[in-house]
Amino acid sequence: MPSIAVYPGSFDPITLGHLDIAARAANLFEEVHILVVHNPSKAPRFSSEERVELIRASLAEMKLDGPAKTVSAKIMVDTLDGGLLVNYCKMVGATALVKGFRTSVDLDYELPMAQVNRDLAGVETVFIPADPIHGHVSSSLVKQVADLGGDVTKYVSEATARALTSSAANRKAQA
Ligand code: PNS
């Protein structure tokens, strides 16, 4: 049985920090599912289909998929449209969740979820510390920087930067 992990999140949009966590998880597990999950407490900028497309394009840019991939694990992208995360884990045979954390604030937010997921179905959470070069990068900050006309190419893939620039222009035109 391959060791399978699920890396869930809003990924609205995926950043280089998220991609670094996915790549590092891919060195620990044989299969990693990046899972776009609807978080009811957030109003997403991109639809789940757009987020999946941006993740796929970013993985390709980073050579984390396809024949030239730089990690040995299989990285897949999927969406969870309602229902419990642990049910998705059961469905695909995953025994672990992967979460990245930048600071203790992230850990405070993640810890109860990790405990509930273990309680519900025995699914363990593996926490991977963010590389300090990505420590200040978040999806909300990159959206804000792009909306204000800043350069986000240091924080996201080229495909995601283009999507953010065009979303910023649309929002400006509608304002
Ligand atoms: O990137 P985010 O928005 O911080 O991710 C939060 C997410 C999607 C991982 C969290 O909301 C989640 O796990 N949702 C799945 C629903 C679920 O199973 N909830 C019960 C256990 S936490």
Description:
This protein is α/β, with parallel strands linked by helices. The protein has six helices and five strands, in the order βαβαβαβαβαα. A five-stranded parallel sheet has the order 3-2-1-4-5, with helices on both faces. Helix 2 packs antiparallel against helix 6 and helix 5 packs across helix 6. It is globular, with a radius of gyration of 16 Å. 4'-phosphopantetheine (PNS) binds next to strand 1 and helix 4.
Outline the fold blueprint.
Blueprint: E1 4-9, H1 16-25, E2 31-37, H2 48-61, E3 74-80, H3 85-92, E4 96-101, H4 104-121, E5 124-129, H5 139-147, H6 158-174
Parallel strand pairs: 1-2, 1-4, 2-3, 4-5
Bound molecules: 4'-phosphopantetheine.
Residues 8-10, 37, 39, 42, 84-85, 113, 116-117 line the site of 4'-phosphopantetheine.
Q: Report the count of strand segments.
A: 5
Q: Average pLDDT, to the nearest integer?
A: 96
Low-pLDDT sequence parts: none
| N-to-C order of helices and strands | EHEHEHEHEHH
Give the helix/strand class: alpha/beta
Q: What is the helix content? A: 40-55%
Portion in beta strands:
15-25%
What is the first-to-last residue Cα distance? Answer: 53 Å
Assembly type: single chain
Number of helices: 6
The radius of gyration over CA amounts to 16 Å
Strand order of the largest sheet: 3-2-1-4-5
